[in-house]
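Q: Structure tokens for this one, please.
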Amino acid sequence: MDTGLLVLRWAVGLLIAGHGVQKVSFLLGGNGLAGGTEEFRRDGFRGGRLTALAAGGSQLGAGLFLAAGLLTPLA
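A: Here is the predicted structure, written as tokens:
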């Protein structure tokens, strides 16, 4: 059971981190920061660039924390 939870934590954490990377860069098929900014503006959020950076950074950090098992309730 512990191994299954470890693999699940890695998979979900790395997926979340990868999604955050896509919001702010061209890696993993992302549209870069300009694309992330436009996505948030289209969805009605103000401050698109700051919002994209905050969302991408928090997803990247939370995903890596979850994958590493650090502060998992917070992540």
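A few notes: The chain has a mean pLDDT of 87. The longest helix spans residues 2-24.
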